[in-house]
Amino acid sequence: MIGPLKRLWDGFRGSGDAAVTVPPMDGALRPNQLLETARLVAAVPSPDDLASDGRSLFVSSGPRILRLVDGVGTVTAEFGAEITALAASPRGRMAAAVASDHLVVTEPDGASTTIARLGDGPTRCITALTFAGEGALLIAQGSSQRAAAGWKRDLMERRSDGAVWRLDLATRQAERLAGGLGWPLGLALDAAGGILVAESWRHRIVALAPGRAPRPVLADLPGYPARLHPDPAGGFWLALFAPRNQLIEFVQREPAFLARMFAEVDEAFWAAPSLRPSATFLEPLQGGAQKHLGMLKPWAPTRSYGLIVRLDDALRPVASYHSRADGMRHGVFTCLPFGGRILAAAKGGDAVVEIDPAADPANGPAAATGAQP
Amino acid sequence: MAASEAWTRWRYRWIPDKLVGEILSKSWIDTLIPGVILAAVLAFFSLKLPGFLSGSNLGDIAQIYGEYLIIIVGITFVMMAGGIDLTVGSTFAFCNLAALLLINSMEMNLALGIPLIMLIGGAIGLINGLLIGYLGMRAFLTTLVMLIIVRAVVDQGLLDYGQTISRGFNASTAWEFMGVGTVFGVPSSLVVAAAIALVGHVVLTRMRFGWHVMAVGGSRRSAYNAGIRVKRTVCLTYMISGLMTGLAATFYAARLTSAGTDVGKGLEVTMLTAAVLGGISLGGGRGSVIKAMLGAVIVLLVQNSLIRMGLTSGTSSLVLGLILLAAVAIDVRWVKNRHKILARAYVSPTYFRLPPLPETAAGSGSPYALNDRLRGVAAIGLGELDGPEDVIFDRDDNLYCGSRHGDIIRFFAPDHRRSEIFAHIGGHPLGLAFDPQGNLLTCVGGMGLYRVSPSGEVTKLSDETNRSLLSIVDDSRLRLADDLDIAPDGRVFFSEATIRYEMYDWMVDALEGRGNGRIICYDPRTGQSRTVLPNLQLPNGICVEPGGQSLLFAETWGCRITRWHFDGPHKGRREVVIDNLPGYPDNINRASDGTFWCALCGMRSPVFDLALRMPDFRRRMVQKVGRDDWLYPNMNTGCVIKFDAAGTILDVLWDLGGEAHPMITSIREHKGHLYLGGIYNNRVGRYHIPGADPAWTSNASYWGDRS
Lengths: 373, 707
Description:
Organism (chain A): Prosthecodimorpha hirschii
Helix content of chain A: 10-25%
InterPro entries (chain A): 6-blade_b-propeller_TolB-like, NHL_repeat
Protein name (chain A): Strictosidine synthase conserved region domain-containing protein
Largest interface: A-B, 37 and 43 residues
Number of domains of chain A: 1
Number of domains of chain B: 2
Keywords (chain A): Repeat
Oligomer: heterodimer
Pfam family, one (chain A): NHL
């Protein structure tokens, strides 16, 4: 009885679930241009995930896996469909999820095994992978119903069909650790071995514990969180692949409009988050993004954005790196520490870049100004 | 789907939602609340009290009402200037005492006595005014203290002169007339009160002093900065209040000739209740004499009826106090929330369905296929200009364009590098056209149609048109004159983009999808303007065809171009020339080969086209989503099309990515080049048209070669 009444009241007041407000980027998330001006490591088309075994850096780009050495990529593997997630273990074991519903684990000697079933369903829509020691693989499944390519519709419908699995590589037994998640898109182990999941559609990071509901540890993010990686020096690096936007939050709550938009409008032109800056007039425009004097303002409302957040051990944001509405390095899915460097893959910006953690947000990269503390 | 869409279409066609916002935006809407309360009071007491509306009851009330009304006109002035006058109760008693003493007992001539008593009241008001206006003391405390002091004087006076007064009797007919006389059945006091109310209303709304009072109440600091003598204005309002109270007390004295201790007791609360209930804001600046009159009627009816219902006087005061509390609460909430309700209710989307979006992809074979022809056009005035909506040339090849700062800027031939401010108009000049005498005619956003002579002298031609019969917003004033063209006989046809939004909100009009704009004809022979084509969807560019009997006009949100015959055998006929553009057409101008150029200031996007078919969605969006986040037509890419009189698309010029010309609002061909303007741009573009007649000018095309 209370539920429907609360919904009606929320609908009238614009509160609770009906709220279309988005949290402001302030405090540690205050906008800067550090991601936009970060050093280019390699121009790679649509880089999605980064992985490292401690010696080499791998990046997934479409159906290919490239090893990046000094900014030059060499193809190490190629699959028949797009790679949706990548992980490497310290001993050189490598796991890659392929959009054609399977998971390939490659041993250092080149032998590979294919996993096509996850529990009682196909290995569908794997969005993140991480090794838990050498013998087990943690798997984030964005949705058990939909392919990874259908993310936009899943997001607009605010579905929660995602799950996190633990796969024992020796026995090939998969155990479902959590279900009913809103498109888990990042996985990381904290210092105590607990599992952290970036639940993208709910704009939060949750901690999983056996026998208990997922516990939010960082909520109300101003964007959609993607992959999460621990920093060897402590803390985590979180990439957010798109910003939250009042208009999109509003459209998500308009079922009649959504249904017609899905049916009548090409997916590329939806009023939905996007990985790339708008390139065609067929995409929707918001009032504040109107160009004045030939210029798009960096603070304009936008459907794409580049954002990396540094979190401390308690998952509190401490610093952030931005590419704003007028920038190009949007749609960052992964930020990975590798050999003392911080690398980020901007899928919408076709670039792998290196973040300078010592950069001063007001003055740009520290190297450029020489203002090293 | 189709059935529900048909229903939506029907519903938005016949239910005029826009009226809600338009009524709310009227300043008289504040009067609605006391009006409703009055109706409720009348209904309640006529059911409760038999004979409530009978002649004798109303006659009694009317006499008292006259006195109340005189006082409340004075109070209205005080409150409008942001003050409060609690002294009225004591002033009333004091003047009553003075009237009885001077006129009743000492039989002073009324012509001398009445002004004298008013002056006594005025003197008390002046003390208030000096203390509050010039010494800057708090109005509430000062008048409260004065209330007590004057009351003490009255009590002393009653002790001293009580005997004298009760013995006195003035038998003059004039004095009797003031007390009980009527004019055609209306009590004398009410006749005088009506005259005072009328004068008060005229002063407050039409005269300098009234405007000063309202300005001081609305914003004291701004009024001071504007040069208004704030202290004097405040002081004068208290004096007016005192004078009025004195007059009312004279009528009271004539009517009752009683000098009891309870005369005027609680009058200040009654008057305050009446004023606030009528909708005169305690904060100042909002209200009118009419509202005060309404408030006084309500309070008087309630007071009178409560006594007739047999309530004790304590209960009566209690009810009055509760009404005052409720009125103050309503006043505070209403003033605070009115603009919020208005902001939510004003934008009123309606159903509009555009034909399927034409293909624009490069290599698609569509006449609109994308290209990069405008990439790298030369720029004129880059960085110096702000908003050259239209561009035009005189016979000496000098270039003229408008700017957001309200200027017309002239770039000198031949290279258009050097510029000067040709004329300052004050509003953003939009459309430009030269008449045969070399005068520059321009539509100025927010101002109307103006003429600038070759020497730079600015003359207003028109800022109003005929008011239409059923429009709630005042559509006689021109809000957003947009583009114009001149017929061979000198008549000027110009478009007004929308009558519902101001200059800088014009894009919000896109969310409505209704025909809010119109085309107006200014006739120089009569100096009058008349609306010739109403209800157009943001009419924008206008171009008189070379035949001189018809014109082409673009409807921006309608994505179509229409021909309208204003003369000749087909006079009055309207025919659509292009019905489904891929973008939003802006200005139309002649091309050298007898065809036409049209700028598309923005492009259609499928999501916005869909939203146009779902007015409920847009209304909720306006209410829930912040203004900068609203879905708009895509105005960051524009193009130029060329079409012939039959509507065939001959050419299209794109600036892909919108780097130099994101939004093209105008084009002007001149001597083989095409000049591009943009209302939000910082330059004028210059594009070489391959194969165009290098001698052709628009001036010659319209008015022939210079002879």
